[in-house]
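Quick one, probably user error.
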């Protein structure tokens, strides 16, 4: 299988155009998108973007597209992905892609932003000084919320612990929005800001490949677009709005290559 992975397109039509060209040039069998597909912000019409631009683009692309939503993608429009025949939202879903297992997970740790649809506490103890506990969710209805730091009944860590019992995790390709904490994939101007729960999950399970987004500048700050944890290759392609950042994955050859940064990542399925 030959696949193209990217993330954080944020509704920029030119980046989608570049992604389509790359998929065709590489004769890709599939495209994987790691979240933040829609224009960001409450004032944007994400419904109109999907129906008017993205779904026709997906139809023209003509290959399977697996995706997770990101923290800027409002959950009130998740149904658009479920209803579409051209894209599959794989959040908490285990699917077969040309004989390869793929599992998706959209949630991120608490952010400084106000859209809270895809946010949870990371684990039972972690709290960051930049956490914005107040915000708005769009689903099942739009309302203001506030996370209670003393209530850790629903965390990323608990979600992923349940995944281990459901699927053959060591032989699954994982599509996350958040990157693992303390790696090349989560570096920002605030230091490491990825998910500790995702990091611990990778250390425990050792899947062959994990794909991530969310922290756009990580490969520029760390000067690495992938990191290795045991046998696991974790990728954050990064993103800047003028040029598509993507990774081409060849599962037959066991290699990945970035469209901008040098070097190959080797993996074993």
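Nope, works fine. Designed sequence:
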């Amino acid at each position: 299988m030959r696949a193209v992975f990217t993330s954080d397109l944020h509704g920029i039509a030119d980046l989608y155009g570049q992604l389509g060209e790359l998929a065709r040039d590489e004769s890709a069998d599939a495209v994987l998108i790691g979240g933040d597909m829609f224009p960001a912000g409450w004032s944007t019409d994400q419904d109109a973007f999907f129906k008017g631009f993205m779904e026709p683009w997906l139809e023209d692309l003509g290959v399977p597209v697996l995706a997770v939503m990101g923290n800027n993608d409002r959950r009130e429009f998740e149904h658009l992905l479920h209803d579409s025949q051209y894209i599959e939202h794989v959040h908490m879903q285990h699917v077969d892609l040309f004989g390869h297992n793929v599992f998706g997970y959209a949630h991120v740790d608490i952010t400084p932003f106000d859209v809270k649809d895809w946010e949870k506490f990371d684990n039972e103890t972690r709290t960051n000084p930049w956490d914005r506990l107040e915000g708005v969710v769009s689903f099942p209805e739009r309302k203001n919320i506030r996370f209670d730091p003393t209530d850790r009944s629903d965390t990323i860590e608990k979600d992923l612990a349940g995944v281990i019992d459901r699927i053959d995790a060591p032989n699954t390709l994982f599509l996350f929005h958040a990157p693992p904490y303390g790696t090349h994939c989560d570096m920002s101007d605030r230091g490491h800001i990825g998910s500790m729960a995702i990091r611990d999950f990778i250390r425990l399970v050792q899947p062959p490949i994990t794909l991530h987004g969310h922290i756009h500048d990580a490969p520029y700050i760390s000067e690495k677009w992938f990191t290795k944890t045991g046998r696991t290759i974790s990728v954050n392609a990064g993103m800047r709005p003028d040029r598509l950042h993507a990774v081409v994955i060849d599962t037959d050859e066991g290699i990945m290559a970035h469209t901008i940064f040098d070097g190959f990542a080797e993996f074993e399925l």
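The chain has a mean pLDDT of 97.
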